[in-house]
Amino acid sequence: MTEKLSLQYWIAQAEEKNTTFANYCIQNQVEALELTAEEILERMESMLAVMREAVQTGLQGVRSVGGLVGGDASKLDEYLKSKPEKAIGGTVLSKAITMALAVGEANASMGRIVAAPTAGASGVLPSVLFTIAESYHLTDRELAKGLVVAGAIGMVIASRASLSGATGGCQAECGSAAAMAAGAAVDLCSGTPSQVGEAVAMVLKNMLGLVCDPVAGLVEVPCVKRNAGAAAQAIVAAEMALAGIKSAIPVDEVIDAMGNVGGSLPKSLRETALGGLAATPTGRAWSKKLFGHIEE
């Protein structure tokens, strides 16, 4: 059995070396991939370009293949531009959830996205990164470092739990994406390595047990709107961590708990479209309309 990775160990190593978590993660990847730091960051910047295109695609009002979702990102964008004073969550949160919806809709319309860590959760990380970049005037090179941090967090979650909705429910997809985004946000906002870990722990605790129940088996409902909710959760956790708030449970233990919870979820709540929202009368009606039958 492959040895589990430890976010706590990496955090301790970064603090011992008196460096940022991003710089520590980059050096890890330099050694593991036998690439230069420049080459790694250039790869990350190419992913940022795809993420940015996905946001723009979604904001155009695209419709999903199944027809269950589409146009909500552009609707929210227009509303916030016309009535900025009505933004209940303020500028940062409102922009983040708009972009999260946009990427989710781009994915559902078969657009090109970056799985971060999965296609169904692809809107969370870019929405948080781009919102922070706009607020704090960050460069793509700085965001590229944030992507490396997010990737490292995803690697640990994959090692200790899962990134698959079929294995661990949506906590493994949108939950992991939110954890990756929260940790990256903390590092981009000059948080300490320990604060990165606190953000990851807190966001996963808030999303523990989230089920995967796609209506008609499509990555549309509730997936797209869950991306927006997960982006908000990431911002909440990052804000708390940067303020010095700590998780009572260490981050590796929280990730392990997520893995255990995922394994305890019944099959009906793990991407089979047999439970949750997929099993509601309306969810079943959509399945019959689209495919002519209902999964039993």
From TrEMBL:
Name one process (GO BP) from the record.
Answer: gluconeogenesis
Provide the family line.
Belongs to the iron-sulfur dependent L-serine dehydratase family.
Is this entry keyworded Iron? yes
User: Pfam families of this UniProt entry?
Assistant: SDH_alpha
Q: For this protein, what reaction is catalysed?
A: L-serine = pyruvate + NH4(+)
Identify the InterPro entries for this entry: Fe-S_L-Ser, Ser_deHydtase-like_asu, Ser_deHydtase_asu
Stated EC number for the protein is 4.3.1.17
Q: In which pathway does it act?
A: Carbohydrate biosynthesis; gluconeogenesis
Cofactor(s) this protein requires = [4Fe-4S] cluster
Q: Which GO terms describe its molecular function?
A: 4 iron, 4 sulfur cluster binding; L-serine ammonia-lyase activity; metal ion binding
Q: Where is the Serine dehydratase-like alpha subunit domain?
A: 16-278
Under what name is this protein listed?
L-serine dehydratase
Q: Which UniProt keywords apply?
A: 4Fe-4S, Gluconeogenesis, Iron, Iron-sulfur, Lyase, Metal-binding
